[in-house]
Amino acid sequence: MSKLSRYSPLLYGDSIETKRQEIKEYFHNTFDLFEKVFEVLKDDDVFYKKSEITRHPMIFYFGHTATFYINKLMAMKVISQRINPSYESIFAVGVDEMSWDDMENARSNWPEVTDVRAYRNRVRELVDELITTIPLSLPITQKSAMWIILMGIEHERIHIETSLVLHRQMPIELVKETVDFPICTKSSKAPMNELVEIKGCDIHLGVEKPSHALYGWDNEYGAFNQDIPDFKASKYLVSNGEFMEFVLDGGYENKELWSDEGKEFLELTGVKHPPFWIFKDGVYKYRTLALEIEMPDDWPVEVNALEAEAFCRYKENKSGVSYTLPSEVEYRAIYNQAQIKDIPDFHESRANLDFYHYASSCPVNEFDFHGIYDVVGNVWQWSRTPIRPFDGFKVHEAYDDFSVPTFDEKHALILGSSWASSGNLITKHSRYAFRRHFYQNAGFRYVVTNTKDEEVADIYESDELVSQYCEFQYGDTHFGVENFAKSTAAIASKYAINRGKALDLGCATGRATFELAKTFDEVEGIDFSVRFVQVGAKLKSDSYVAFSTLEEGSLATNKKVTISELGYDSLKEKVSFWQGDACNLKPNFTSYDLIMATNLIDRLYNPRLFLDTIDERLNKDGILMITSPYTWQESSTKKEFWLGGFSDESGKEVKTIESLQTVLGDKFELIHREDLEFVIKETARKYQHTISEVSIWKKK
Question: 16-174 adopts what CATH topology?
Answer without folding.
Answer: Four Helix Bundle (Hemerythrin (Met), subunit A) (1.20.120)
